[in-house]
Design a protein that fits this description.
Layout lengths: L4 E13 L2 E9 L10 E6 L9 E10 L3 E9 L3 H7 L6 E8 L11 E7 L3 H12 L9 E7 L8 H7 L2 E6 L6 E2 L2 H8 L8 E6 L2 H11 L5 E5 L15 E5 L5 E5 L6 E3 L7
Parallel strand pairs: 7-8, 7-11, 8-9, 9-10, 11-12
Antiparallel strand pairs: 1-2, 1-6, 2-5, 3-4, 3-6, 4-5, 12-15, 13-14
Length: 272
Amino acid sequence: MTKDIFIGEISNNEEIQGNCFLMKVILPASFCDPQPGQFVMIRISGLYEPLLARPISIYSFSRGKDSCAIELLYSVVGKGTQILAGLISGSQVEIHGPLGRCFEIDEARKNIVFVAGGMGIAPLSLLTEHLCGDKCFSQSPMTFYLGAKTAKAVVGLDKLQKLCYNINVCTDDGTLGKKGLVTQAFQKDIKKYSPVNTAVYACGPKEMLKSLAKILRGSNFISQVSLEERMACGIGACLGCAVAVRDNKGALTYKRVCADGPVFNLREVIWQ
């Protein structure tokens, strides 16, 4: 994991849905290729109020001859992200990363299931991109369950449709796709998937992940989740993003989402 800080230039920063923005940042060629599940800490170059950088999952990555680019999908939830949303093309930002533990890929498991809720689509989109490209996984056995509160809250679907054939969209109010929770849709289909040949990757609100853990309890599915937690430093120094987990002996302990995660084994996390 690199801890380098890079100066990047925003080439695009547009609102793609209500309160949800997609930012593209051009970075030096020395920026390391991020692995699926990793994130960056971002702050406006030269601006020290608000002081803390903001953690954002890497949504997409591309590399050119003399530079590379990352795309960051984020929603405006506070002062820091409100400032980010106001940045225009040509603005400079400090990018710290790529940071964090990535998803582990078992190439023997050719059946891939993704379960995303809301902004949880961001790290899973990079993973889908990675599997279709570098790992050369077939799109056919990939199934994506995407959930949101309403149709207006569904983001990233256009990109996803280019990467994955089997997409199940669920909204709480039924304004797009099936009405109901995304975990309910997955539970209904679970018998379609062989636990021995299937890997489940998930990211979304805590209640969604808690429900998924209950569904998969006692099964042989391999499942990894990317946790969404507030982070202050991004490198594990402040301990502000610690979560309760079980160690390999079953004892309760704590791990830092930024440094030990954000990706964890689903069964490792204590969801109470």
